[in-house]
Design a protein that fits this description.
The structure holds two protein chains of two kinds. By secondary structure, chain A is α+β, with helices and mostly antiparallel strands. Chain A is built from five helices and four strands. Chain B has a domain of about 80 residues: Alpha-Beta Plaits (2-Layer Sandwich). In chain B, α1 packs antiparallel against α2. The chains are: A alpha+beta, B alpha+beta.
């Protein structure tokens, strides 16, 4: 594989914001509200799946469940968590659980920018240096 | 870091109940099951011209860290690769959890009953 000598990794010139993979499990029909909560936190990727719960019926409300996978910026998690716990306390129907898992890597800078909602006009914190400059520029 | 781990188990369709009963024996409270499609086995894709989709069940269980190994061991015993369930189980670290406290409170026996 040929390596580009002028290549400078994005993380060396920009401040990276950690991302979290958030899983929210709620009862049937509750996923739209959860997606809206995610959108409030500038989440750009939400995936809703249908599943079934196995916890005893005395503890949870319904067996049919909706699972919402989303990717959030780590600094947005406390606000999301607060809104979520408020929602879970509204009623038995709105109950659910959520947990976050740290993301280690993503496939490409553009994907990272999309997931972290990084603006295109954001300036680098450090210049690319001699390595990053091409002779023509 | 939080005191929970997310155990994920991918098994053949219909074996999720075995996984859950094994996990409950190891101390797990409950889990969530959803469906998927396997892509690993290329030999079984076509059968007399009809494509057979290898359906899979994914069982997601949030467990306290101290019982994680026990849950994985029990699940592997009940529906691992040496069984018909052909399951693989692994765990992911969980950074933070919401809503599990309420679940634990509800699961605890109430006084006077």
């Amino acid at each position: 594989m040929s390596e580009n000598k002028n290549f400078v990794p994005y993380e060396e010139t920009h401040r990276l914001r950690p991302l979290l993979f958030v899983t929210t499990i709620v009862g049937e029909g509750q996923s739209d509200a959860i997606v809206n909560l995610n959108r409030e936190q500038e989440c750009s990727l939400c995936l809703v799946l249908r599943g079934k719960g196995t916890a005893p019926v005395e503890i949870v409300n319904s067996v049919k469940k909706e699972i919402v996978f989303s990717i959030l910026r780590a600094d947005r998690w406390p606000a999301y968590k607060m809104k979520l716990s408020q929602r879970f306390n509204v009623s038995k129907v709105a109950k659910g659980i959520a947990f976050s898992t740290p993301l280690d890597a993503v496939a490409g800078v553009s994907i990272y920018k999309m997931l972290s909602n990084t603006r295109l006009f954001e300036k680098p914190i450090a210049p690319a240096g001699k390595k990053g400059k091409k002779k023509d520029e | 870091m939080n005191n929970f781990e997310c155990v994920l188990c991918v098994v053949n369709h219909g074996y999720s109940d075995l996984v859950m009963s094994a996990a409950k024996r190891a101390g797990a409270t409950g889990g969530t099951i959803f469906s998927g499609r396997g892509t690993g086995n290329h030999d079984n894709e076509e059968f007399f011209g009809v494509t057979v989709t290898p359906e899979k069940d994914i069982v997601m269980i949030l467990v306290p860290k101290p019982i994680r190994d026990k849950v994985l061991e029990y699940v592997n015993e009940a529906a691992g690769m040496s069984t018909k369930g052909l399951g693989i189980a692994f765990s992911l670290p969980v950074a933070d959890v919401v809503g599990i406290g309420e679940l634990r409170d509800a699961a605890a026996p109430k006084e006077g009953k």
